[in-house]
C-alpha cells in the first residue's frame, strides 16, 4: 500500500513541475508577443510612410512606350499678337435682303420692258397714249429705286465690305451658310486696326484657321464700343461659328517679337502654368515657360529655355504623369 502511495505522490510531483514549466514558458511567450506587437506598432506602416519621390524616366524602353520624341528649340521672329473674339452673325436678315433684291430686280426688269413696249407703240401711233407711256416710265423708275435700296441694305445693315462682294457672291454665300459650309462672323479685337485684307487667326490654338477681313462692320459693339470687322469662315470651323457662337481671334500688331519657338505638342499645362520637359543627359526635367506668346507656328517664349535645348515634342503628358506621381488631373496637352 505504501508503495502505491509513493508512486502517486511521485506522479503528482511530476505533474506539478510540468505545469510550472509550461506556465513559465507561456509567460515568456506572452511577453515576447507583447514586445513584438509593440515593436510592430512603433514601426512605420505603408500608409504613414512618406511617398517615394518619382525620378525622371531614363529607361529607353519606357520612353519608347510613352512615345517620347525630342527636338531642339530654335529662335524665331514673329509679329506680336493681340487677342479678341469672333462672333457668328445671324444671316436671316441677309437672306431676306437677297430675296427682296432679286424680287425688286425682276419687277424692275418687267416694268422697264413694259415702258419700252408702250413707248414703241406710242411712237408708231398704235393704241398707246402718252399718259400710259409716262405711267410705265414712272413705274420702271420706282422699281429701279427699290432695287438699288435693296442692294444698299447689305452695306447699311452689315457693312460695306460685304456689299463689295456683289449680288451674285452674296447669294452664293447665303446658300453656303444655309448648308453649313460657311459662316459670316464679326471680329472685335480692341486696339487693333484691321483694314480690309488683314489676316486674322480664328479658333483655338492648334486648330485655328486664318481668314481675311472683308471690311468694317456696320455698327459698333454695344458693350465694347469697338469697331468690328466682317470675315467669312469656311471649312470645319464654320459649324462652330454659327449665329451667336463666340470663338477666339488673334491678329498681328505689326510689331516684331523674337524668342524661342516651342511646338504646341511639347507643352503641358499643370498647376496653372505651362511646362515643357527638357532633356538633361538621359533624363527629362520639367521646365516652366516664362511669358509664352501664341503664334500660328506654336508658342514664343523668352525665358526658361535657351536656344539648342532638346525638349520632348511628344509624350510630354506621360512624362508629366510620372513626374507628378500620377496626380495630373489638372494636366492636359496644349
From TrEMBL:
What UniProt keywords apply to this chain's record, in alphabetical order? Signal
Q: Return the protein name.
A: HlyD family efflux transporter periplasmic adaptor subunit
Task: Extract the signal peptide range.
Answer: 1-23
* Keyword Signal appears in the UniProt entry: yes
Region Disordered, as annotated, extends over 33-56
The UniProt record lists the keyword Signal? yes
Amino acid at each position: 500500500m505504501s508503495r502505491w502511495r509513493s508512486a502517486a505522490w511521485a506522479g503528482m510531483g511530476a505533474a506539478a513541475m510540468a505545469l510550472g514549466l509550461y506556465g513559465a514558458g507561456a509567460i515568456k511567450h506572452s511577453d515576447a508577443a507583447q514586445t513584438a506587437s509593440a515593436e510592430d506598432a512603433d514601426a512605420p506602416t505603408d500608409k504613414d510612410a512618406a511617398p517615394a519621390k518619382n525620378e525622371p524616366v531614363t529607361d529607353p524602353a519606357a520612353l519608347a512606350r510613352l512615345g517620347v520624341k525630342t527636338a531642339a528649340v530654335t529662335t524665331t521672329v514673329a509679329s506680336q499678337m493681340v487677342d479678341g473674339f469672333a462672333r457668328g452673325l445671324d444671316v436671316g436678315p441677309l437672306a431676306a435682303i437677297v430675296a427682296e433684291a432679286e424680287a425688286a430686280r425682276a419687277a424692275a426688269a418687267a416694268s422697264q420692258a413694259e415702258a419700252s413696249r408702250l413707248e414703241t407703240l406710242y411712237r408708231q401711233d398704235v393704241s398707246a397714249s402718252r399718259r400710259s407711256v409716262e405711267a410705265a416710265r414712272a413705274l420702271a423708275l420706282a422699281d429701279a429705286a427699290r432695287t438699288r435700296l435693296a442692294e444698299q441694305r447689305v452695306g447699311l445693315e452689315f457693312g460695306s465690305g460685304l456689299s463689295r462682294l456683289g449680288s451674285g457672291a452674296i447669294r452664293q454665300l447665303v446658300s453656303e451658310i444655309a448648308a453649313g459650309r460657311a459662316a459670316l462672323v464679326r471680329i472685335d479685337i480692341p486696339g487693333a486696326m484691321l483694314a480690309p485684307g488683314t489676316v486674322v487667326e480664328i479658333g483655338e490654338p492648334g486648330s485655328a484657321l486664318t481668314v481675311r477681313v472683308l471690311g468694317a462692320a456696320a455698327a459698333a459693339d454695344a458693350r465694347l464700343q469697338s469697331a468690328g470687322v466682317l470675315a467669312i469662315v469656311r471649312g470645319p470651323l464654320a459649324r462652330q461659328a454659327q449665329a451667336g457662337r463666340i470663338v477666339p481671334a488673334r491678329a498681328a500688331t505689326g510689331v516684331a517679337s523674337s524668342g524661342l519657338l516651342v511646338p504646341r505638342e511639347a507643352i503641358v499645362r499643370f498647376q496653372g502654368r505651362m511646362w515643357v520637359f527638357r532633356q538633361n543627359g538621359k533624363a527629362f526635367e520639367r521646365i516652366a515657360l516664362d511669358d509664352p506668346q501664341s503664334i500660328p507656328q506654336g508658342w514664343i517664349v523668352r525665358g526658361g529655355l535657351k536656344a539648342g535645348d532638346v525638349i520632348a515634342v511628344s509624350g510630354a503628358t506621360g512624362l508629366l504623369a510620372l513626374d507628378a506621381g500620377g496626380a495630373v488631373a489638372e494636366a492636359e496637352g496644349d
